[in-house]
Write a structure and sequence with these properties.
Order of helices and strands: HHHEEHEEEEEEHEHEEEEEEHEHH
Helix content: 25-40%
Distance between the termini: 109 Å
Strand order of the largest sheet: 8-5-16-9
Shape: flat
Strand content: 15-25%
Structural class: alpha+beta
Radius of gyration: 40 Å
Number of strands: 16
Largest sheet: 4 strands, mixed
Number of helices: 9
Length: 415
């Protein structure tokens, strides 16, 4: 009971900040116990004060953090509006079907995935590297000789070139002073296609060393869309038409062609194109399972009079086939894919661009055109001109500073 009284007296004394005579008398009597209780109370109050101070600091820190987050969010929002794609010059989310606006971690350019000929995604890749930066430090195999459209003996001789620095020089234009989105330019499509190697220039025309050909993605796409001077190729060397059909002449199914070549003669003898022993594959209904099954057969005789091939199958059946029928059964049939109401469109990434040699005459004529302002042409180079509208009312205001001011004559100047 005495301890409880002492604690109460101490509490009252501290609150009123004065000591009464009674308290002094009690303190003399219970001095040791009072000191102990006082220390305990003071320690407890110190703990409460420290806890209150910590809570106050945490509240202040949270308020500061929220303000900083709001500032960062506002800055990011402004950045999204001002950061533009290097190819289309549009901000991040101006369309839903073009994928993320990726930033190259090395050179800092921004590109929409679809603009950069990538498969669109919804994921921001912090480790994204553009084609030009990815090439630095790599060894690139090139054809020898390296010519647009390839050569008859393409692939027989190859050389290796090392990329020592980030390419900036586009062979399709003269702008090579800043970082821009780029793609490699190949000599041809197909398995044998390799990056085009440009020969060393003489000192009179620039003196550039032997180097690999690169193009601005924007330049390549412009020439592809407007004039079909170029076309994009995927990682397997194939290109596709607007319906998603593979159109690459460079891709060859070597196994099938080899089999057909081995089984057919170079010259027809007595009207017989396919040799005795040529293997065939044809579907028939299996009598046991009542399901379609592929039966192997082979040509055992040719009727020179009727021009028919006598074919014997593995189950003992036989039949006579005409030449076109034999040709249709030379390859083993594969299971047809299940049909869907709307087949998904082909969506593949473009690895590189190739120049369309099928319209090389059009390209040659374009290279001879001269700009009415600068009086220059690009004959002998790969810089393919389309139109020069310097000073014209159709000129993009962003480009006017590069061309100066010219009187408008109402004519769309062409190069």
């Amino acid at each position: 009971d005495g301890i409880e009284i002492d604690a109460q007296i101490i509490e009252e004394t501290l609150e009123e900040t004065k000591i009464s005579k009674t308290v002094l008398d009690i303190k003399r009597k219970y001095s040791g116990e009072i000191k102990t209780q006082a220390k305990k109370l003071l320690k407890k109050w110190e703990q409460i004060w420290m806890l209150a101070k910590k809570e106050e600091e945490e509240e202040e820190e949270e308020t500061t953090s929220q303000a900083a987050a709001a500032t960062t969010a506002a800055a990011n929002d402004d950045n999204e509006k001002t950061t533009l794609c290097d190819i289309c010059s549009k901000p991040r989310n101006f369309r839903d079907d073009i994928g993320m606006l990726q930033k190259c971690k090395d050179c800092g350019i921004h590109v929409h995935e679809l603009c950069y000929c990538m498969v669109p995604t919804s994921t921001l890749n912090k480790n994204f590297t553009c084609h030009a930066c990815s090439a630095v430090g790599t060894e690139v195999e090139v054809n020898v000789p390296s010519k647009i459209g390839g050569t008859d003996d393409i692939g027989k001789e190859r050389d290796v070139m090392t990329v020592n620095e980030r390419p900036m020089d586009c062979v399709l234009c003269r702008h090579n002073k800043e970082y821009h989105a780029m793609h490699p330019l190949y000599d041809t499509d197909g398995k044998q296609g390799r990056q085009l190697c440009l020969p060393r220039q003489s000192a009179s025309v620039g003196g550039k060393p032997r180097r690999l050909a690169w193009v601005h993605t924007l330049c390549a796409q412009t020439l592809t869309i407007q004039k079909s001077y170029l076309f994009g190729v995927d990682k397997d060397g194939m290109y596709y038409d607007k319906d998603g059909k593979c159109c690459s002449d460079g891709i060859v199914n070597e196994s099938n062609n080899k089999e057909e070549d081995d089984e057919s003669s170079d010259e027809e003898v007595g009207g017989q194109k396919y040799k005795i022993g040529t293997k065939l594959y044809k579907e028939f209904e299996d009598p046991e399972t009542k399901e379609l099954r592929v039966f192997k057969g082979k040509v055992i005789r040719f009727d020179t009079k009727m021009k028919l091939y006598h074919v014997l199958y593995e189950d003992g059946d036989y039949e006579d086939l005409e030449e076109h029928e034999v040709k249709s059964f030379l390859q083993k049939p594969t299971k047809a894919p299940q049909k869907t109401e709307e087949p998904p469109p082909v969506n593949v990434a473009t690895r590189n661009f190739c120049i369309n040699i099928e319209i090389k005459e059009d390209i040659k004529e374009a290279l001879k055109l001269k700009c009415v302002v600068c009086k220059r042409d690009d004959n002998g180079k790969l810089a393919i001109p389309i139109q020069c509208n310097a000073g014209d009312e159709t000129e993009d205001p962003e480009f006017q500073k590069h061309h100066g001011h010219y009187p408008l004559d109402g004519i769309r100047r062409r190069r």
